[in-house]
Amino acid sequence: MSASLPPDFFTPEEKLEWMQVALQQARLAASLGEVPIGAVLVSHDGQIAGLGYNRRELDQDVTAHAELLALRAANRRRRSWRLSDCSLFVTLEPCFMCASALQQARVHEVVFAAYDPKSGAVCSQGHFFDDHRLNHQVYWTGGVLQAEAGQLLQDFFRTLRQRNKVRELQAGGGRGCRRQQAEAGAYQSTDLTAGVSGQSEGLPPAD
Ligand SMILES: [Zn+2]
């Protein structure tokens, strides 16, 4: 799916390549025990402006989402908050917090992989970037490599559930980590790879 067509800075093949970079960031998050979500901010001359992966648990920071960390890295590197010559590639549909920050940074375009029916602000739970009352329009495309990104999330939560089960058994049926279990359950009940019905954004199949 996508919003009205922006000028094409990246070919469909380049979008797949940049999403692979975002997926590498997501895998890095998973290796550190974080929910695997990764992002890369790319300037329209093909340079990496900022990288980020989810670090919410590691940093105990509710704002440490992949998108915001990529934005902060780019702001620091460029000594500028304005990123209008950049597109962001992220492995999961942004939440409202990140969508707002991306809009305020004047990012040109957001390309995401898996849809997030639970908290996605782009087309699942809201249509933030399509709100024409805002002073800057962010173009968006969803579903690029969504199968890979969704699989990464599902594998992560499957491993987490298994680990928690073992811990519970070792603790003699104790409570384990209730909060993580609840969160894993919430993601499990959501098909992150299913997307939503509607337009096709015309990119090659995810596999
Ligand atoms: Zn977010």
Characteristic key phrases:
single chain, 207 residues, alpha/beta, 5-stranded mixed beta sheet, 14% strand, globular, disordered C terminus, binds zinc ion
Tell me which ligands are bound: zinc ion
Structural class: alpha/beta
Q: What is the rounded Rg?
A: 17 Å
What is the share of helical residues?
A: 25-40%
Strand order, biggest sheet? 2-1-3-4-5
Low-confidence stretches: 185-207
Portion of residues in beta strands equals 5-15%
- Written as H for each helix and E for each strand, in order along the chain, the element string is HEEHHEHEEHH
Which overall shape is indicated by the principal axes computed on the Cα atoms? globular
Number of helices: 6
Mean pLDDT: 86
Looking at how many chains there are and whether they match, the oligomeric state comes to: single chain
How would you summarize the topology of this molecule?
Elements (H helix, E strand, L loop, with lengths): L11 H20 L6 E6 L4 E6 L2 H4 L6 H13 L7 E7 L3 H9 L4 E6 L24 E3 L4 H25 L7 H11 L19
Parallel strand pairs: 3-4, 4-5
Antiparallel strand pairs: 1-2, 1-3
Helix pairs in contact: 1-5, 5-6
Describe the 3D structure.
By secondary structure, the chain is an alpha/beta fold. It is 40% helix and 14% strand. It contains six helices and five strands. A five-stranded mixed beta sheet has the order 2-1-3-4-5. Helix 4 links the parallel strand 3 and strand 4. Helix 1 runs parallel beside helix 5. The protein is globular and about 60 Å long. The C terminus is likely disordered. Zinc ion binds next to helix 4.
